[in-house]
Every structure is written in structure tokens, then in C-alpha cells.
Amino acid sequence: MKIKKILSPSITNFITSSLFRDTRRNYYEIKRKLYRQNHVVHFFFQIDDPYSYLASQLLKKIINDYQITIHIHLVGAPDKKAAPKQQELVQFSLKDAKEIASYHGLDFPATASLPSQSDTHKAMLALANSKDLVNDSLRIGKQLWDHNLSTQTKTLPVSEVELDKILAKNKLLRKKLGHYQSGMFYYAGEWYWGIDRLPYLEERMKTIGLKKNNSPNISHFQENSKPLNQINKTGLTVEFFISIRSPYSYLALPEILAFQKKYSVKTIIRPIMPMVMRSLVVPAKKASYIVMDAKRESDRINIPFGIINDPLGRAVLRGYSLNSYAQSQNKLGEYLLTFCRLAWSKGKDMSLEKNLKLAIEVCSLDWNEAKHHLDNSEWQQSIEENRLQLIKSGLWGVPSFRLIDHKNNELFSSWGRDRIWLLTHKIDNYINRQH
Predict the structure, then answer these.
(1) What kind and span of H or E run contains 347?
(2) 44 within 8 A of 184, measured Cβ to Cβ
(3) Alpha helix (H) ranges present in 214-352?
């Protein structure tokens, strides 16, 4: 066994610890004071990214409420390696922004379509020429999404060559600071994705005394709709697509397992292969961000996470070979959750038979029966069917879900544990319309 494999749980336990986080924060604060610098938040803005546009609507409020400086960096689309399903991501982002904007009190045109390459380029030229990016990112972004670009953006002193230099410089800065995506806030060693993670940034700024006033927080985590108090007779079903190699799937599983009882809908868990095992690239910077982001999410929702033994490869294959047995005992979800908990919070090597036995027995299942299923290949067909359905719904990552009616019509689908709250509102709205 490689030494890296042996040390991995210990290393991840340290780098995801509050001690490491606080030490890193103290380092950046000492460095800031030493160089007599202001508190600076960097925002990487992509003009045709819906999430960037949503976040841009809060920039002035952040400046007004916190003693900080915001540096806005104009960037292009992420590299294909960072977003291998780029077209699907673009389409999903547009759909998702329309869905979530009103819940955050933000604007996004319900009839918006993707801007043309020509208009996007004109808007980037206008921003490259701007002396007031805080206001202009919002103003020009709104014009772009309204398909109403001002004529004053047509003749500008910034050349094509200069624009390319600006984009390249900002892309390099983003890479140097440790990220790959647009719509991101960066402050002193940590990244915050758009409006979904802005509450973490606000919490951090308040903790160090940067809040100027007693006004309410600018951003907040969305909450689920209230559980239904009556039996749902509408025949709704929610299909959850998860992977045991996905930290976000693990964090979503407890909520998923409680979903059927809370919201009176039928739930089906559909495991799929991890992205890497489906030939989709996950760069090191992306994997690192996911782990750190999953850690702060796990702390917020009180799920153990951080002592990690990555189950990629043989552990996934062996783990999934026991799916059919767990399913036959009506404990597939419980088994997958236990597998994930052992891998993502206990540092267990889940390719080992002794740890698979532990996962089975924790679920009060019979290992003597389960081991007859170990290392079979029968599970591969159902996993592939799940993948194909995921793609059909315009999705590719996990956790994802789709809401279907009694006729198997898809009413709603989305991606990410961050959108389970939206699913609960969709269920609530649908049932209310039936009465």
C-alpha cells in the first residue's frame, strides 16, 4: 500500500480542521496588517454567466454594509477541463437562475435566453473600458440579459488585443489564487461561490468586525418548505441520483432518506458512477475546493466529514456490487449512507472486505447473505440506466433529482444539494395547485 494512501485520512482530517482554517485566516490577517492593506474581496465576473449577474446585484450592498474594497475581475468562461459539460452547464445555469432569483429578492428575466456571442463580446469590451465596475457590471449585465445593449457600447477605446490581455491576466490571477470558476468571491485564502455561499463570507466579515451597521444580512441560506401535514395523494415521485464518491451526495443523503416521510412523496435512490469513472475530468483545484466547501457545509448542517479515504475505483465497484442485496432488504439508502460515512468521515478504505462487512452490519443486514453478492457485475446495468436518465433530464453531476407525476411526466429537475430546498417548494406549489 502506498504511503500516500496510508496518510490520506490523517492529512484530510488536518486540512479540513477548524485549527487549520483559523491558522490560515490568522496568517492572511497578519500579512494584511504587515503590508498595511485594506480588506479586499475579489469577485470574478463573467458577463454571460447567470450566477455572476445575480451576485453583481449585491455588490453595492456589500460595500455599503462592510468595511471592504471589492476588486472586480472580468473573466471568460471556465476551461473545458474545469467544466467538461460546458453546454449543459450553460443551459442549466440559465434555467436555475430563473428559478432561484425571486427567492433571493433578485432580478433575472423569466423570458431570458442566452445572449449572442456578438452581444457578449460587446458587453465585455464595455466592461473592459469601465472606470466603475461595481455599477457597470450590473448595468451592462442587465442590458445583456434584457437583450437591450446600449449603443454607447459599440465604439470604445479598448482594443481586441487589450481585452484579450485583461481576460488572460484575470484568468491567471484566479488560477494563482486557486480557482477555476466564474461568479466567485475570494477573500484572504477562501472562496465563496455566488449567492449560494455569500452567507459564509458575510459571517466571516462580521466575525472580524467589518460590519458597518446593524442592518440584516444581505444574503441567507434558503430553507425548505414546511413538511406536509397530510398524506399526498397526487402520486408524486422524486428520483435522487447520487454517487458514493461524491461528498455532496453524502451530505444530501440524510435529508434524502427523511424526504419521503416529511413530504409524503415516493422517493427512489438511483446511484450512478462517479464523474471520473465516466471519463469526466475533475482537476485538482476543483477537487480541493469541493472538499473544503463540503467541510463548511457539513459543519453547518451537523454531519461528520473530513477524515477521508477517497473511495474512487475499486471501493466504488465493490460497494455498488452490494446494492441489489441492500435494495432487496429495503435498505439501499441506509447502506449507501453508511458506506459514505465510513469513507468520508471515518477514513475507512472501503475496498476492503472488512469495511464493507462493517457497512452491512451497521445497517442490521446479514453479511453471510451479502457476501454472496460481493464483486458481482449485475449492478452495472441499473447504474447505466440511471446515467442515461440523468443525461435525458439535462443533468450530469450529483446529487441530482427529478420530480415526476403519476404519469411519469417530469415536472422539475435540478442539480446539487443546494437545490433540495427548491424541490420542496416545487412539491408544495404543485400540491397546492391540486386543491
Answers:
(1) none
(2) yes
(3) 247-263, 284-301, 314-320, 323-328, 332-345
Q: Around Cβ 158, how many Cβ atoms within 10 Å?
A: 16
Residues 160-169: contacts with CB under 8 Å, at least 24 apart: 162/128, 163/124, 163/125, 163/128, 166/74, 166/128, 167/74, 167/75, 167/76, 167/124
* First CA to last CA distance, the chain: 61
pLDDT score at 279: 75
Beta strands 184-187 and 69-74, pairing class: unpaired
* Predicted TM-score of the model (pTM): 0.94
b/e string for 77-115 if b means 16 or more Cβ within 10 A? Answer: bbeeebbbbeebbbebbbebbebbbeebebebeeebeeb
Can you tell me whether residue 367 is helix, strand or coil?
A: helix
Q: What's the mean pLDDT when you consider all of the chain?
A: 93
Cβ burial 176-191 (10 Å sphere, 16+ → b, else e): eeebbbbbbbbbbebb
User: Where are the domains positioned within the chain?
Assistant: 38-207, 237-434
Query: Domain 38-207 carries which CATH code?
Result: 3.40.30.10
Q: What is the CATH number of domain 237-434?
A: 3.40.30.10
Fill in the amino acid letter for 8: S
Q: Which residues have CB under 8 Å from 120's CB, separation 6+?
A: 47, 48, 144
For residue 227, the 8-state DSSP code is P
Distances in Å between the Cα of 370 and the Cα atoms of 51, 314, 325, 356, 365 are 45, 17, 6, 10, 8
CA distance 427 to 403: 8
Topology alike, domains 38-207 and 237-434: yes
Report strand pairing: 40-45 vs 410-415: unpaired
Per-residue pLDDT tens digits for 188-234: 999 999 999 999 999 999 999 999 999 999 999 999 998 766 555 67
